[in-house]
């Protein structure tokens, strides 16, 4: 979700920049967009295998995945549980993948999207008397305890009507019927038509006022959910997600880009670039960048120049490097250290 919003913001915001900066920001957005699967897709997880899904988007990727894909095996803590289950990133899934489709970064029929949506339905979907609803992510502890006691820092996450609205937007893009999801949101509302944050999905507990598919003891109204209801109703009439930035759709139309330039920065230390890509090194201060190709005499130094977003940039001549080549880069200042960046073949989109 966060990565989708960040990429969409770069593309939409680029329209407010001058021509030179606009091009640089769009190339950065393209680079991030092309790396979504590299950073956020887990293959061969136990969770996926249990449900026949070979690869899926994860809920949260550790920051170091930018330079090491093995980081998806790192544990991502769940702070709202009485006892953290210690699940690696690759074993956690959430509904956030839908935002990639809603904002026009991926198609609804993208194989990774389809696989993740199937996994989400297997582990997060709840059938309630109000209609199907979804929990936020596996292992969520934010919600009432099974005996109806209120959330006290731990508990069990319950289905959110809001997420039925998000699924309705996905259904719209996927050429499915979104109306049932709108009806779920309506039926899950309280007596005054207020949409709750969560609905109860356990056995009826009348003394606690908890009934399946009806508001739990969570926040009500959840204004965010009311906004989602309005947007879904409007989107159904418009035939498309009305909050999809038009600039993003025009640039990507749901397809993964093949950017001509990769970007490296101390806060974004990517470990690979694709064959044929140039490499832009970013810094928050003016500096010089030293580089050398491993096993060759090719080496040089480039001075950064002011670039978009208040950064400084130096472009390195990597376009002629071959797969399995590697380039070492470092800033010409004490203690920066060399970083290795390997050249790989461009990935083919999944079938």
From TrEMBL:
Q: Which GO terms describe its biological process?
A: carbohydrate metabolic process
In terms of SUPFAM superfamilies, this protein maps to: Six-hairpin glycosidases
InterPro entries recorded for this chain? Answer: 6-hairpin_glycosidase_sf, 6hp_glycosidase-like_sf
* Residue stretches in coiled coil: none
The protein in question is named Glucan 1,4-alpha-glucosidase
